[in-house]
Amino acid sequence: MTRHLVRDYLESFRHPEFWIYATWLDLVTKYRRSRLGMFWAFFPPVLYTFGVGSFFAHLQGIPAGKFVAHLGLGYMIFRFVTVSLSEATTTYAGHANFILDGRVRLTDYVLRVVAKALFYFMLAIPVMAVALAMSPDFRVVGLLALLPALALVFINVAWMGAVVSVIGARLQDVYELVGSALMFSFLFTPILWTAANAPPDTLRGGIARLNPLFHLVEIVRAPLLGEPIESWTYKYLVVFTLIGWLMAIHVYRRYARFVPLWV
């Protein structure tokens, strides 16, 4: 039977019981035997934002309070996208029993990994609130653009997750390929450095701006820190989102029906 990506996503949101419960169960079983429990979910953003952020601020001669918010926000967005995509590549194989039993609304499994990444993102919000409070660049008005910007990030994660999950069901090496590509993209995403360090009219700035994570991070972070968003970022994300969804709809319609055979 031919599957339609948008219709399946809408059905998954209308009936979220499976993927929400499965995500909750994953998290409970992961931390229930740990003495420190949910502390381990808070630890990475705290360590990265204030530990790594202070270290790199010192290396660059920037006040720590000014740089930790920049690094922390970039890390949050980057982690959400990369965790969602890397786990999406193996989500169908991990749920093979459900798929073979006839639960073939495949978007449920994509949303399961995205919901898990979103949970960690939300846990980091108090850490980011402290980092923003420390930053002299924080602009309260930037909060007005936060939800639309995060929605745009989610929309792009949704189509990218759908594509890599279908391809990953057919080719197991996709997990390693996506992981390596995301690791490499970290170097071209303004997290440890700022967009001003790589102007768009330079070779390194042009290469960095070919990276979609560059723009997904900037669209969320820049308004919060009172930084201008380049017009190129708006154009890039409009084209990237539209072409991406058209490609994802085609891939899902053409190949999703083969997933039960591949897993």
Overview of this structure, please?
The two termini are 17 Å apart. Helix 2 packs across helix 7. By secondary structure, the chain is mainly alpha-helical. 74% of the residues lie in helices and 0% in strands. The chain is globular, with a radius of gyration of 19 Å. The model has no long low-confidence stretch (mean pLDDT 91). It has one domain.
Main β-sheet, in a few words?
Answer: none
- The tally of structural domains comes to 1
What fraction, in percent, of the residue positions are helical? over 70%
DSSP, total strands = 0
N-to-C series of helices and strands: HHHHHHHHHHHHHH
| Shape designation | globular
User: What proportion of the residues form beta strands (DSSP E)?
Assistant: under 5%
What features would you highlight for this structure?
mainly alpha; cell membrane; ABC_2_transport; 263 residues; transmembrane helix; globular
Describe the structure in brief:
With 263 residues, the protein is mainly α. It has 14 helices and no strands.
SSE diagram, text form:
Blueprint lengths: L4 H10 L2 H15 L7 H22 L3 H25 L2 H4 L1 H5 L6 H17 L1 H10 L11 H25 L3 H13 L16 H6 L3 H13 L6 H25 L3 H4 L1
Keywords: Cell membrane, Membrane, Polysaccharide transport, Sugar transport, Transmembrane, Transmembrane helix, Transport
Protein name: ABC transporter permease
Membrane topology: Multi-pass membrane protein
